[in-house]
Amino acid sequence: PWPKPQTIKTTSQQYAVHPSAFHFMVNSTSQSCDLLTSAFDRYYRIIFFPQTYLNHILDPELAKHEKQIEPKISLADLQD
Amino acid sequence: ATLLKRLNVHIAQPCEQYPSLESDESYSLTIDSDSAMLESVTIWGALRGLETFSQIIYADDNLGFAVNNTMINDFPRFKHRGILVDTSRHFISVKTLKMNLEAMAESKLNVLHFHIVDDQSFPYESRTFPEISLAGAYNQAHVYSQDDIAGLIEFARQRGIRVVVEFDSPGHTQSWGLAIDILTHCYSGGKPNDEFGPMDPSRNTTFDFLKKLFSEVASVFPDHYMHLGGDEVDFDCWRSNPDVQAFMLKMGFGTDYSLLEQYYMQNVVDIVGATGKGYTVWQEIIDNNVTVKADTVVEVWKDPYPQELARVTKLGYRTLLSTCWYLDYISYGSDWVKYYMCDPHNFNGTDEQKKLVVGGEACLWGEFVDATNLISRMWPRAFSIAERLWSAADVKDPAVAKPRFEEHRCRYVRRGIPASPENGPSYCDYEYNR
Prior knowledge:
The complex is a heterodimer.
Chain A: E1 7-17, E2 23-26, H1 34-48, H2 50-58, H3 60-64
Helix pairs in contact in A: 1-2
Chain B: E1 2-3, E2 6-11, E3 27-31, E4 35-40, H1 43-56, E5 58-60, E6 64-74, E7 80-86, H2 94-105, E8 111-115, H3 130-136, H4 146-158, E9 162-166, E10 183-188, E11 191-199, H5 204-220, E12 225-227, H6 236-240, H7 242-251, H8 257-274, E13 278-282, H9 284-287, E14 297-300, H10 305-314, E15 318-321, H11 335-341, H12 351-355, E16 357-364, H13 374-378, H14 381-390, H15 398-414
Parallel strand pairs in B: 2-4, 7-8, 7-16, 8-9, 12-13, 13-14, 14-15, 15-16
Antiparallel strand pairs in B: 3-4, 3-6, 5-6, 10-11
């Protein structure tokens, strides 16, 4: 990441992330608010549809006419 | 590979309405099962953690998108990580300002220093004094309405970014005086010469006007801090004006016009202080011995900056550094390396003095910048300031940072932000296409 976090540890173990099977959740013991839920919407788009993200937030009318770029791997391919 | 099904977000404290200089932006992020966890004290830390989470997910030929097993503990080294945007020398469209705010959030920068007015134009549409922008803006399309400003503040708030507005005076105010008689009338040969200088401190009406204007500004911009400028005051016009000369005698200032500047700024800081706001000022205010509130933030912009930082912190003021981060100066090659090497703790001082440095700002003055080139001139060069102000002090080798810098530029391009190439020949998997 940029800027570099204070501490970061990673391994080679991978997790698949798919737009149809991934959700942001507010922990049941946590606070929530409109800032957080709107951030979830933004980051879902940034992660899975980066090429259309900026139009969506700066020009929502234009974005309605843009076709979303579908991920190459379907959820069915990832079921196991 | 296991499918990552969710990111659980836990925020310990109720959400605050607006970020502040004191906000806690720390977070921890753990990805070690089909449920990841993001924990923070405040909403602002959660926003920073979400940005990091978005950056560690990558496109993978086999999996579509993937993320590795990861543990991150993170917090900023400095609390004030700013960008100055000048909207007076050229008007910058609201859409461009929003794109810049988005770009700031994606590098964890958290203060927009909105240098909204200056000599050249006054695009702030005041509720109390609408005549100033009517006369002082370039034209009536080149203004920021109250709705525009509210929209920008909200856009910034959603990203944990403070908007600190600057109304610089007594100099840099030519555009203000086109509608309201607050500037000093300059004289030559004993007669007014139709030229105007800084605001006229010899007239009470000047301060009556400022009380009303700053009262409005304090209500429009929610941040605790307002930037009061105070830099580059030219004394020649004050010297020429007989009323100012008489006022100097009356006040016992002799011929020392820095005392008049001090008198002016003392009045202004008292006016703004009475609104309940704190203030940021350019370093000249302190250089000229104006008495300011204890929570004042002093912005150092002159060289030699190590000596300036040492002097201001020795006086006990919280301090920002911008001297080495003037992005309007351009050259051929990789400018980002010299910005990356500059450090706000690069001065001789005690640990207590170092703690008074609260951060810094990249400054992009607008003489040669408008909406056509603001984003590509700002980015990726402002990455350097973002990492210097967020990451640990020992993250300082540009050769080590270069691959991440390149990756981050390509991330911006992929996300639709036209960050320009800074390292010579290269390519991004997704090139800019707009």
